Amino acid sequence: MTRFRNAIAGVCLAMGLVTGMVSPTWAQADDGVIAVQAGDDTSGLADIARDASVMQAAPLSQATRDAKAQVAPKPHVPRLTNRPVAKSERAPMFAGTDTERTSLALRIALGLTLLAVVPGLLVCVTAFLRIIIVLSMLRHAIGMQETPPNTALIGIAIFLTMFTMAPVLQTVNTTSLQPFLAGKTTPEQAYERGIVPLREFMVRQTREQDLALMIELSKAPQPRDINDISNVQLIPAYMLSELRAAFQIGFMVFLPFVLIDLIVSSLLMTLGMMMMPPATIALPLKILMFILVDGWGLLLRALVGSFH
């Protein structure tokens, strides 16, 4: 900086000497009068050099201030370290010992498995199995393979199951579900209380022959009473009884439609219309007969009334 100021002073000194040589006392300019005293050259040149140095230094300092103002502060970047995380800094779900975390993971896996298995178990221990089989057999007896669709049949079967098992479900809700949600019972106690009404329902619908067959196949000792029969033996016996009852009802459903098929086939043979498919004539007649006798109402009443 000192060298720069000295250079400016030298330039101004040279300019002053040239001006003094042209006019020792005054120099007339186009834009005004600039007074230069010939006898005081040294002080005048010093003032000019000082003013020039100030004028040159001021813009530099202003530019420096502007540049510093425009520079944004550097963001704070956290440093990565290999310091182990303390137990107090861990997330709550990972708190505890390794054994506790393993137990929590096993409970979560068991809960997800139960959520996947429970719908199938409910089908096996409720009235849904008998109802859906009868409705499917009705569709085949009429001769319509895809009407009503499976979604409609399953929906009807679910609602009929709710109507049929309403007392049982109410008992399960009162004795098992509500106390568990209130925190008054453990999961094991809730299961033991909730399975009792379902077992009573299954025992009423299960034939003794089917129950004896399952006990024989399991090679278990003969039970002294119904409480000694395990769920592993009772549930398949109940399902066999439900299949038998569903096939019996389905046979009764098939009979009138089979008679219509026989009558239509005989008429076509008598008229010599052997090339005419019997299903073309029989299907509209089956639908008409089913509507005239209020087939849906009769069938649903029979299904709900078949449970005792």
Automatic annotation (TrEMBL):
Major site of localization recorded for this protein: membrane
Subcellular location(s) per record: Cell membrane; Bacterial flagellum basal body
Membrane-spanning residues: 108-138, 150-169, 245-271, 283-304
Pfam families: FliP (PF00813)
Domain of life of the native organism: Bacteria
GO terms, biological process: bacterial-type flagellum organization; protein secretion
Zinc recorded as keyword: no
InterPro entries given in the database record: FliP, T3SS_IM_P
Protein name as catalogued: Flagellar biosynthetic protein FliP
Organism, as annotated: Pandoraea bronchicola
Lineage of origin: Bacteria, Pseudomonadati, Pseudomonadota, Betaproteobacteria, Burkholderiales
Gene that encodes it: fliP
